[in-house]
Write a structure and sequence with these properties.
The chain contains 27 helices and 7 strands. It is mainly α and 768 residues long. The protein is globular, with a radius of gyration of 30 Å.
Length: 768
Amino acid sequence: MSMRWLTILQFLEIFAAYGIVTLFLPWRILRKRFRCFSVAEQLIAYFFAGNFYIIYLVYLLQFLRISSRVTLLLGTAGPFLFIWIWKRKKQIPGAMESLLVRIERLLDGERGKKTSLAQLRRTVYERCFRGKRKQWLHALPEIAVLLAAIAAITYVYGPNMVETFGYKASDIPVHNYWINELERNNIWVAGVYPYGLHIVIYYLHMVFGIPTYVLLRIFGVVQTYFVYLALVAALKMVCRGRFTPYFGILFYVMDIFNWSTYARFESALPQEFSMIFVLTSVCMAIRFFQEFAKERNGNCRWYLVQFAIGFSLTLTVHFYGTMAAGLFCIGVAVGFCFRFFRWNYFRRILITGILSVLLSVLPMAAGVAMGKGLQGSLYWGMNVITGDKKQEDADTAGTLSQDGVSDSLTAGEKESSGNTTKNGETGSVLSQSRIEELRKEAEERIQKQQKPLAERLKEKGSAVRESIRINVMNVKPHMAEITLGSIAVLLLLGIFLLVLRENGFAGAVLSAAVYLLCMCSLQCASLLHLPALMDANRCGIFLCYAICFAWALGVDAVVYLAIRWWKRRWLGEMASLLTLVTAVTAVLSQGLIREPVKVGALEDNGAMVCVTNILRENKDFTWTICSANDELRMTEFYGYHYETITLLNQLKDLGQNPEIIIPTKYVYFFIEKIPVDYGESTKHEEVTAKGAETPLPFTGGLHPYTGENRWITMSHMYEWAQRFQELYPNEMEVYYESDSFICYCLQQNVNSPYNLAIDYGYNNPMPK
């Protein structure tokens, strides 16, 4: 089987496994509780319940240090079976007796296989189709639209998944390491961190037996489907039209956004996983404000419960998702200000918000109480918020630096050249020319502050527009202006709906407008002198998500206003469907659908093919892979790993290392003939003897595998493999080879392994 077909089958397996535990099992238990809600609300409730349960189940078992496949299966199936049996305890004896009688007749030949299959088909027909012809006919158009949306998502994100097999983000090996440690009941091995995604990957690995490295390769695309479908489900809750929510996906797959705003969807990363819960959780709060006014207190309680669970999941997965959800909550507070500040509403929302934060913080607080410190990236995130970390913010790049100068001096500015002056307060020494430059910059800043307010606002607006155009939108003209203008349009639509006394719908539209305004302000925070809660690149991803949500809701409001005076349900559905079909036709005719995403992996496809085959062909721990770095965590529980740079450094001094032995039956050497651009370009197309003539990099960590260092390392390794194969042609064979990658397999007697310490001609070349 080719790697492409294997990847497709693995994708279907992972999608089905995740769907079973987050949708099917909760549906089996909770369907009667939520049957009075809409289909979208039910799906979100099941999804929240499924994710919340498995995450906190793993937390509990990890704290007790008893997490294993057995305990996870018991914790998953036990409660569901108990509830199922409890509800059917009077029916089970009769059902079991009937089943045993049928099996006995089938085994005795009294009942044929065809009869049994016919009865099974009849049972399925009676439960799913009999008397439901109108329901299926009514659902067919939406099923067709949903399939078209799934096809669009597949077209954009599917090809890269089946063409590029390796990890596509540099931090995935670190996440792989953390997930592996969960298997050892060693949670937060690197410090306290939101572990939502790690727990989901770990759970799927333990319960369904899917290797972790396969999940990390493919789950990014799986979660992307859920990100897009969550957008539709959230819109379904607040839109009036039946088909207008699908505009959210249409806008998202259009070629109007910057590549950087959606490229990360190809990787299984916590930030993107958290996006599933951002809109869906806050839309539950919107539904509470809409329904509580109708005095449906029973349902409203469940809206608040779902809001608490969903909002807590954002922080359980990634704090950036919580920030985006928090800004949306501000939008809801403004959009429903006519209800939000009433005590009946306010106290319920306040209590729910506090409970949701406590739910997510409690496991991490327990970790801190157990003596675990915070993981480093949390400090980085806090530094971004407080402004302590100096960062390259795209908002201030190029022509966007409209005003202001830095109040701090770099080390280079403290060097004197020529005439110097002593700064009495800091003790630093400034050149006279630098003092003149600072004086001129201060004068220019004063002049800008003295400009008329209208002119300053115009300059600031131009800078904001240009920032959004460069960092979020692509080269399509006027998209930044459309984005900013849509905020005003949404505000006007909301006000108009308020005038028409459509208060619930008006609140949703106004909430979306304020949320979009908040996200645009956050994107340009440095230009507007606001706190930068997240860096501009990450913010752009959430901004695009907010744009698609707000625009789809705006389209729905326009369609609703156009037909609201005709009190016919079928007319509204037809209008929304025709609007969607017209928009899709226009987008396709103009070629506005974005091309399939292309994201390169940080290892060669051949490496992933070899890892897959090695795991399938060999017994555990009978082999060793000698490679750069990523395979270490992929194969941690199945075999051994030897660092390429470790071997090469040992070969530099054969006097000190006369014997280099790897005592396993098989040793696989992964060598890139065309080195991968890891972190930066290698500046070389293929390995050469010239690269082996260059001294090995002296730095540690990942540096020997980044940029030009990777070319040098792989050139040395290739030359060593060539010389070793010449010495042992029968034992050192080519296991796999492509134009860009080669894998050698050394088969040896474990009782008398080969000595890898040979003189390959470039062991320790001197710098030229």
